[in-house]
Specification:
Blueprint lengths: L3 E6 L8 H9 L10 E4 L9 E3 L2 E3 L2 E4 L8 H5 L5 E3 L5 E3 L9 H5 L6 E2 L25 E2 L5 H4 L6 H5 L5 E5 L6 H8 L15 E4 L1
Parallel strand pairs: 1-11
Antiparallel strand pairs: 1-10, 2-5, 3-4, 6-7, 8-9
């Protein structure tokens, strides 16, 4: 058993969107969809600012599935398509997904995507890791914590590609891991902590 997790150093994150594109390429994400995105806190648009010029500031927050210990999405899934695996990841069994979108409604982080149409990719072929399942119209999608890579002991592609090394990955069940030390010793931020979902993605600065 494990609890794989990601910590994001908001002091280092520049909002460059490298993690967004790395995720998209690794996981064969369709053109109209993002599993991982970067939002600007307290701004009405991506890459916006907080405040009024010239007194402005910007905090960028990479946002994807929080791989919660107590996932709201899993509780409402009628078929068991959404499940927690033995690595602590929240995953989707695409063969069981009936596209009811109950999980999408239940997720407080708005990080699930639904294939309303047949997925379109440009170029017009599948790309990324050949082990990643191809999703079809009518199923949910989201960050898998790069299951194919992390099953092999590798880091998620968003962690590997971050130019500022703002992302840390590891096992929260290992008290000696870097991510456990960050969780224990730093003043970390949990998104929507009062929801009780206990995310395994957290932020620090």
């Amino acid at each position: 058993m494990a609890r794989l997790a990601i910590a994001v150093d908001l002091h280092r994150c520049t909002g460059c969107h490298t993690c967004v594109n790395a995720c998209k390429m690794q996981n064969n994400v369709p053109m109209s969809m993002l599993w991982n995105r970067v939002i600007t806190e307290n701004a009405s648009m991506s890459d916006g600012v907080e405040g009024t010029y010239p007194n402005v500031s910007r905090t960028t927050i990479p946002l994807a599935c929080q791989h919660c210990e107590n996932p709201a999405c899993q509780k409402v899934c009628p078929t068991g398509a959404t499940y927690k695996d033995d690595q602590g990841r929240v995953e989707i069994d695409y063969d069981k997904c009936i596209g009811c979108r109950m999980c999408m409604a239940a997720c407080p982080y708005n990080v699930r995507q639904f294939n309303w149409e047949e997925p379109v990719r440009d170029p017009d072929f599948n790309y990324g890791d050949a082990r990643v399942p191809v999703r079809v119209k009518g199923v949910m999608e989201k960050c898998t914590l790069c299951k194919e890579r992390t099953d092999d002991g590798d880091e998620p592609m968003c962690v590997v590609c971050c130019p500022m090394r703002a992302r840390k990955f590891g096992d929260l069940d290992d008290p000696n891991s870097e991510i456990s030390r960050i969780r224990r010793e730093r003043n970390v931020r949990i998104l929507l902590e009062d929801m009780g979902t206990k995310p395994q993605v957290f932020y620090f600065a």
